[in-house]
């Protein structure tokens, strides 16, 4: 039972399937928590089409896919915000693959990719209801900080020095 983490083009079919699974889960969680219904299918399609992931393409970014026993099971993206700051995004592991060590491996690989891009600091944001994510980031050495963006859905901001 092994994980392999490898770069993946942001516009590949594998990346598209993982983005759809990620976005569906986080969107449905928000709507179920706040409005007692899943994401409207038309909204889901609009958002998936609008968020291509092109910011995760080299030379300023990288999308990584976690493969578990040869099947795509998760992802993590990193993009440079400036010469020394990278953002961690799209960290996701399929529900059936959770608890098998993939998320920490994906985040660690994303940190390595950020270092290769020249970043000295990694930042990220997440929501209150994504408790598992907040727990993971804290366990991996991220510290909660003040707001660093205007994302409407962000409620927690984290930072980690990569030196």
From TrEMBL:
In which domain of life is the source organism classified? Answer: Bacteria
Looking up Pfam families in the UniProt record yields:
Acetyltransf_1
Give yes or no: UniProt keyword Transferase.
yes
Q: Where is the N-acetyltransferase domain?
A: 17-163
Keywords, in A-Z order: Acyltransferase, Transferase
Keyword set includes Ligase: no
InterPro entries (alphabetical): Acyl_CoA_acyltransferase, Bact_Acetyltransf, GNAT_dom
**Protein name, entry field:** GNAT family N-acetyltransferase
Record organism = Streptomyces prunicolor
């Amino acid at each position: 039972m092994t994980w392999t983490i490898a770069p993946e083009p942001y516009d590949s079919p594998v990346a598209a399937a993982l983005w759809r699974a990620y976005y569906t889960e986080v969107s449905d969680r928000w709507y179920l928590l706040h409005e007692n219904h899943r994401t409207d299918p038309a909204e889901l399609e609009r958002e998936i089409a609008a968020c291509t992931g092109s910011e995760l393409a080299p030379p300023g970014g990288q999308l990584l896919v976690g493969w578990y026993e040869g099947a795509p099971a998760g992802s993590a993206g990193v993009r440079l915000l400036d010469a020394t700051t990278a953002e961690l995004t799209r960290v996701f592991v399929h529900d059936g693959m959770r608890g098998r060590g993939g998320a920490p491996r994906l985040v660690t690989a994303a940190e390595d990719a950020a270092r290769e891009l020249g970043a000295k600091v990694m930042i990220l944001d997440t929501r209150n209801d994504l408790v598992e994510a907040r727990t993971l980031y804290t366990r991996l050495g991220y510290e909660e900080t003040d707001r660093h963006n205007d994302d409407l859905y962000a409620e927690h901001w984290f930072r980690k020095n990569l030196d």
